[in-house]
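Hello,

Following up on my earlier ticket. Below are the two sequence lines again, exactly as submitted.
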Amino acid sequence: MNLSIEMMSILGAAIAVSFGAIGPALGEGRALAAAMDAIARQPESAGTISRTLFVGLAMIETMAIYCLVVALLLLYANPFVG
Amino acid sequence: MEANPLLPDILFQLGPVPISRPVVTTWGIVLLLVTVSWLGMRHARIHAGALQSILEIVVETIASQIQEIIQRDPWRYLPLLGSLFIFLVVANLSAIVPGMKPPTGHIETPAALAVIVFLSVHYLGIRTQGLVNYLRHYVRPSPFLLPLNVLSELTRIFSLMIRLFGNMMSHEFVIAIVAFLAGLLLPIPFMLLGILIGIIQAYIFTILAAVFIGAAIGSVAID
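Thanks for your patience. The regenerated structure is below:
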Protein backbone atom coordinates (compact mmCIF):
# COMPACT_ATOMS: atom_id res chain seq x y z
CA MET A 1 0.00 0.00 0.00
CA ASN A 2 1.46 3.37 -0.92
CA LEU A 3 0.34 6.46 0.97
CA SER A 4 -0.55 9.59 -0.95
CA ILE A 5 0.09 13.05 0.53
CA GLU A 6 -3.64 13.42 1.29
CA MET A 7 -3.79 10.18 3.27
CA MET A 8 -0.64 11.07 5.18
CA SER A 9 -2.10 14.50 6.00
CA ILE A 10 -5.27 12.96 7.42
CA LEU A 11 -3.21 10.49 9.47
CA GLY A 12 -1.00 13.34 10.65
CA ALA A 13 -4.01 15.40 11.69
CA ALA A 14 -5.50 12.49 13.65
CA ILE A 15 -2.19 11.77 15.39
CA ALA A 16 -1.64 15.45 16.20
CA VAL A 17 -5.03 15.86 17.85
CA SER A 18 -5.01 12.54 19.70
CA PHE A 19 -1.52 12.83 21.17
CA GLY A 20 -1.87 16.54 21.66
CA ALA A 21 -4.91 15.98 23.83
CA ILE A 22 -3.26 13.54 26.23
CA GLY A 23 -0.70 15.83 27.82
CA PRO A 24 -2.93 18.85 28.46
CA ALA A 25 -5.69 16.56 29.79
CA LEU A 26 -3.35 15.05 32.38
CA GLY A 27 -1.94 18.45 33.24
CA GLU A 28 -5.34 20.07 33.64
CA GLY A 29 -6.49 17.19 35.81
CA ARG A 30 -3.52 17.65 38.13
CA ALA A 31 -4.03 21.42 38.28
CA LEU A 32 -7.72 21.04 39.05
CA ALA A 33 -7.06 18.45 41.74
CA ALA A 34 -4.49 20.72 43.39
CA ALA A 35 -6.89 23.68 43.27
CA MET A 36 -9.70 21.57 44.81
CA ASP A 37 -7.33 20.52 47.56
CA ALA A 38 -6.34 24.11 48.23
CA ILE A 39 -9.95 25.33 48.29
CA ALA A 40 -10.93 22.52 50.67
CA ARG A 41 -8.14 23.55 53.04
CA GLN A 42 -8.70 27.29 52.73
CA PRO A 43 -12.23 28.08 51.55
CA GLU A 44 -11.77 31.80 52.18
CA SER A 45 -9.20 32.13 49.38
CA ALA A 46 -11.43 30.37 46.83
CA GLY A 47 -11.74 33.52 44.70
CA THR A 48 -8.02 34.01 44.17
CA ILE A 49 -7.40 30.31 43.65
CA SER A 50 -10.10 29.87 41.05
CA ARG A 51 -9.00 32.96 39.13
CA THR A 52 -5.41 31.75 39.02
CA LEU A 53 -6.71 28.29 38.11
CA PHE A 54 -8.62 29.69 35.14
CA VAL A 55 -5.60 31.57 33.86
CA GLY A 56 -3.40 28.51 34.34
CA LEU A 57 -5.87 26.17 32.64
CA ALA A 58 -6.04 28.56 29.70
CA MET A 59 -2.23 28.44 29.44
CA ILE A 60 -2.19 24.63 29.55
CA GLU A 61 -5.03 24.34 27.10
CA THR A 62 -3.12 26.40 24.56
CA MET A 63 -0.92 23.37 23.82
CA ALA A 64 -3.97 21.28 22.83
CA ILE A 65 -5.24 24.12 20.70
CA TYR A 66 -1.90 24.42 18.90
CA CYS A 67 -2.30 20.74 17.99
CA LEU A 68 -5.82 21.44 16.76
CA VAL A 69 -4.55 24.30 14.60
CA VAL A 70 -1.83 22.06 13.15
CA ALA A 71 -4.46 19.45 12.33
CA LEU A 72 -6.70 22.03 10.68
CA LEU A 73 -3.78 23.39 8.66
CA LEU A 74 -3.05 19.85 7.47
CA LEU A 75 -6.68 19.29 6.52
CA TYR A 76 -7.64 22.64 4.99
CA ALA A 77 -4.52 24.64 4.17
CA ASN A 78 -2.01 21.94 3.35
CA PRO A 79 1.02 23.51 1.65
CA PHE A 80 1.98 20.23 -0.05
CA VAL A 81 -1.32 19.62 -1.81
CA GLY A 82 -1.87 21.38 -5.13
CA MET B 1 -20.66 20.38 7.27
CA GLU B 2 -18.76 23.64 7.37
CA ALA B 3 -16.58 24.94 4.61
CA ASN B 4 -12.92 25.74 5.22
CA PRO B 5 -12.71 27.63 8.55
CA LEU B 6 -9.50 29.42 7.64
CA LEU B 7 -10.89 31.21 4.58
CA PRO B 8 -12.98 34.36 5.04
CA ASP B 9 -16.54 34.11 3.81
CA ILE B 10 -17.16 37.24 1.79
CA LEU B 11 -20.67 38.70 1.75
CA PHE B 12 -20.23 41.69 -0.58
CA GLN B 13 -17.71 44.19 -1.88
CA LEU B 14 -17.59 47.78 -0.66
CA GLY B 15 -15.55 49.46 -3.35
CA PRO B 16 -12.15 47.69 -3.30
CA VAL B 17 -12.73 46.31 0.23
CA PRO B 18 -14.36 42.90 0.60
CA ILE B 19 -16.73 42.74 3.58
CA SER B 20 -17.01 39.35 5.26
CA ARG B 21 -19.78 37.94 7.42
CA PRO B 22 -17.91 38.33 10.78
CA VAL B 23 -17.43 42.04 10.04
CA VAL B 24 -21.14 42.56 9.45
CA THR B 25 -21.96 40.62 12.64
CA THR B 26 -19.45 42.75 14.54
CA TRP B 27 -21.12 45.94 13.28
CA GLY B 28 -24.47 44.58 14.47
CA ILE B 29 -23.06 43.76 17.92
CA VAL B 30 -21.42 47.19 18.26
CA LEU B 31 -24.69 48.87 17.26
CA LEU B 32 -26.62 46.75 19.79
CA LEU B 33 -24.20 47.54 22.63
CA VAL B 34 -24.18 51.27 21.86
CA THR B 35 -27.97 51.35 21.70
CA VAL B 36 -28.41 49.50 24.99
CA SER B 37 -25.87 51.70 26.80
CA TRP B 38 -27.44 54.85 25.34
CA LEU B 39 -30.94 53.75 26.37
CA GLY B 40 -29.73 52.89 29.85
CA MET B 41 -27.72 56.04 30.54
CA ARG B 42 -29.81 58.57 28.58
CA HIS B 43 -31.43 59.94 31.74
CA ALA B 44 -28.97 58.78 34.40
CA ARG B 45 -30.43 59.39 37.88
CA ILE B 46 -29.48 58.73 41.49
CA HIS B 47 -32.59 56.55 41.93
CA ALA B 48 -31.79 54.38 38.94
CA GLY B 49 -34.31 52.53 36.83
CA ALA B 50 -34.04 48.83 35.97
CA LEU B 51 -31.76 49.07 32.94
CA GLN B 52 -29.47 51.65 34.53
CA SER B 53 -29.13 49.46 37.64
CA ILE B 54 -28.22 46.43 35.55
CA LEU B 55 -25.56 48.38 33.63
CA GLU B 56 -24.13 49.80 36.85
CA ILE B 57 -23.93 46.35 38.46
CA VAL B 58 -22.11 44.97 35.40
CA VAL B 59 -19.61 47.83 35.27
CA GLU B 60 -18.91 47.80 39.01
CA THR B 61 -18.38 44.02 39.02
CA ILE B 62 -15.90 44.23 36.15
CA ALA B 63 -14.12 47.13 37.87
CA SER B 64 -13.72 45.22 41.14
CA GLN B 65 -12.44 42.13 39.30
CA ILE B 66 -9.87 44.20 37.42
CA GLN B 67 -8.80 45.95 40.61
CA GLU B 68 -8.09 42.57 42.23
CA ILE B 69 -5.81 41.64 39.33
CA ILE B 70 -3.84 44.81 38.67
CA GLN B 71 -3.94 46.11 42.28
CA ARG B 72 -4.46 49.71 41.13
CA ASP B 73 -7.24 52.11 40.37
CA PRO B 74 -9.17 50.15 37.71
CA TRP B 75 -11.08 53.03 36.15
CA ARG B 76 -8.22 54.02 33.85
CA TYR B 77 -8.19 50.56 32.29
CA LEU B 78 -11.91 49.90 32.42
CA PRO B 79 -12.83 51.41 29.01
CA LEU B 80 -10.52 48.94 27.26
CA LEU B 81 -10.95 45.81 29.38
CA GLY B 82 -14.64 46.26 30.14
CA SER B 83 -15.68 46.78 26.55
CA LEU B 84 -13.43 43.89 25.53
CA PHE B 85 -15.25 41.60 27.97
CA ILE B 86 -18.77 42.76 27.12
CA PHE B 87 -18.10 42.61 23.39
CA LEU B 88 -16.63 39.12 23.67
CA VAL B 89 -19.53 37.79 25.74
CA VAL B 90 -22.08 39.10 23.27
CA ALA B 91 -20.02 37.94 20.28
CA ASN B 92 -19.46 34.45 21.67
CA LEU B 93 -23.10 34.07 22.62
CA SER B 94 -24.40 35.37 19.29
CA ALA B 95 -24.51 31.74 18.13
CA ILE B 96 -27.66 31.17 20.21
CA VAL B 97 -29.58 33.49 17.85
CA PRO B 98 -30.63 31.22 14.98
CA GLY B 99 -28.80 31.98 11.75
CA MET B 100 -25.97 33.93 13.36
CA LYS B 101 -22.39 32.76 13.63
CA PRO B 102 -20.01 34.07 16.29
CA PRO B 103 -17.50 36.44 14.64
CA THR B 104 -14.84 35.13 17.03
CA GLY B 105 -14.99 31.77 15.24
CA HIS B 106 -13.07 33.25 12.32
CA ILE B 107 -9.45 34.22 12.67
CA GLU B 108 -9.81 37.93 11.76
CA THR B 109 -11.74 39.04 14.84
CA PRO B 110 -9.47 37.39 17.48
CA ALA B 111 -6.45 38.65 15.53
CA ALA B 112 -7.74 42.23 15.58
CA LEU B 113 -8.53 42.03 19.31
CA ALA B 114 -5.10 40.54 20.04
CA VAL B 115 -3.41 43.38 18.13
CA ILE B 116 -5.42 45.90 20.17
CA VAL B 117 -4.28 44.22 23.40
CA PHE B 118 -0.66 44.04 22.19
CA LEU B 119 -0.48 47.74 21.31
CA SER B 120 -2.29 48.92 24.44
CA VAL B 121 -0.05 46.84 26.72
CA HIS B 122 3.04 48.66 25.44
CA TYR B 123 1.28 52.03 25.33
CA LEU B 124 0.08 51.76 28.93
CA GLY B 125 3.43 50.38 30.07
CA ILE B 126 5.36 53.29 28.58
CA ARG B 127 2.79 55.84 29.81
CA THR B 128 2.98 54.52 33.37
CA GLN B 129 6.65 53.64 33.79
CA GLY B 130 8.37 55.89 31.29
CA LEU B 131 10.21 54.60 28.21
CA VAL B 132 13.55 53.74 29.84
CA ASN B 133 12.04 52.03 32.86
CA TYR B 134 9.65 50.08 30.67
CA LEU B 135 12.39 48.90 28.32
CA ARG B 136 14.53 47.96 31.31
CA HIS B 137 12.16 45.16 32.27
CA TYR B 138 13.20 43.29 29.12
CA VAL B 139 16.73 42.87 30.43
CA ARG B 140 15.66 41.67 33.85
CA PRO B 141 16.72 39.43 35.57
CA SER B 142 19.71 39.22 33.21
CA PRO B 143 20.54 40.66 29.75
CA PHE B 144 20.96 37.12 28.41
CA LEU B 145 17.21 36.71 28.65
CA LEU B 146 16.49 39.57 26.25
CA PRO B 147 15.67 37.34 23.23
CA LEU B 148 13.45 35.12 25.37
CA ASN B 149 11.60 38.10 26.82
CA VAL B 150 10.95 39.55 23.37
CA LEU B 151 9.87 36.13 22.10
CA SER B 152 7.47 35.58 24.99
CA GLU B 153 5.96 38.99 24.29
CA LEU B 154 5.01 37.76 20.81
CA THR B 155 4.01 34.20 21.61
CA ARG B 156 1.69 35.11 24.45
CA ILE B 157 -0.25 37.44 22.15
CA PHE B 158 -0.30 34.77 19.45
CA SER B 159 -1.62 32.18 21.88
CA LEU B 160 -4.22 34.68 23.13
CA MET B 161 -5.52 34.91 19.58
CA ILE B 162 -5.28 31.19 18.79
CA ARG B 163 -6.99 30.22 22.07
CA LEU B 164 -10.11 32.27 21.41
CA PHE B 165 -10.25 31.32 17.74
CA GLY B 166 -9.58 27.62 18.35
CA ASN B 167 -12.18 27.26 21.07
CA MET B 168 -14.97 29.06 19.25
CA MET B 169 -14.24 27.50 15.86
CA SER B 170 -13.83 23.94 17.15
CA HIS B 171 -17.10 24.27 19.03
CA GLU B 172 -18.86 25.34 15.83
CA PHE B 173 -17.35 22.28 14.19
CA VAL B 174 -18.57 19.95 16.92
CA ILE B 175 -22.10 21.34 16.59
CA ALA B 176 -21.97 20.92 12.81
CA ILE B 177 -20.77 17.31 13.08
CA VAL B 178 -23.36 16.38 15.72
CA ALA B 179 -26.18 18.01 13.74
CA PHE B 180 -24.97 16.09 10.70
CA LEU B 181 -25.13 12.77 12.62
CA ALA B 182 -28.44 13.29 14.45
CA GLY B 183 -30.23 16.56 13.84
CA LEU B 184 -33.15 16.49 16.27
CA LEU B 185 -32.34 16.68 20.00
CA LEU B 186 -28.73 15.58 20.26
CA PRO B 187 -27.10 19.01 19.53
CA ILE B 188 -28.92 20.70 22.46
CA PRO B 189 -26.52 19.64 25.26
CA PHE B 190 -23.59 20.66 23.07
CA MET B 191 -25.19 24.07 22.53
CA LEU B 192 -25.60 24.49 26.30
CA LEU B 193 -21.92 23.63 26.67
CA GLY B 194 -21.26 26.29 24.02
CA ILE B 195 -22.79 28.99 26.24
CA LEU B 196 -20.42 27.97 29.04
CA ILE B 197 -17.41 27.90 26.70
CA GLY B 198 -18.28 31.29 25.25
CA ILE B 199 -18.50 33.01 28.63
CA ILE B 200 -15.36 31.30 29.96
CA GLN B 201 -13.34 32.24 26.88
CA ALA B 202 -14.46 35.87 27.13
CA TYR B 203 -13.47 35.83 30.82
CA ILE B 204 -10.08 34.26 30.12
CA PHE B 205 -9.30 36.67 27.28
CA THR B 206 -10.10 39.66 29.49
CA ILE B 207 -8.26 38.28 32.52
CA LEU B 208 -5.15 37.57 30.46
CA ALA B 209 -5.27 41.04 28.91
CA ALA B 210 -5.55 42.47 32.43
CA VAL B 211 -2.61 40.34 33.61
CA PHE B 212 -0.47 41.51 30.67
CA ILE B 213 -1.37 45.14 31.35
CA GLY B 214 -0.71 44.62 35.05
CA ALA B 215 2.72 43.19 34.27
CA ALA B 216 3.49 46.08 31.89
CA ILE B 217 2.58 48.76 34.43
CA GLY B 218 4.61 46.91 37.02
CA SER B 219 2.07 45.80 39.60
CA VAL B 220 1.79 42.01 39.24
CA ALA B 221 4.41 39.35 38.86
CA ILE B 222 2.48 36.46 37.27
CA ASP B 223 3.24 36.09 33.60
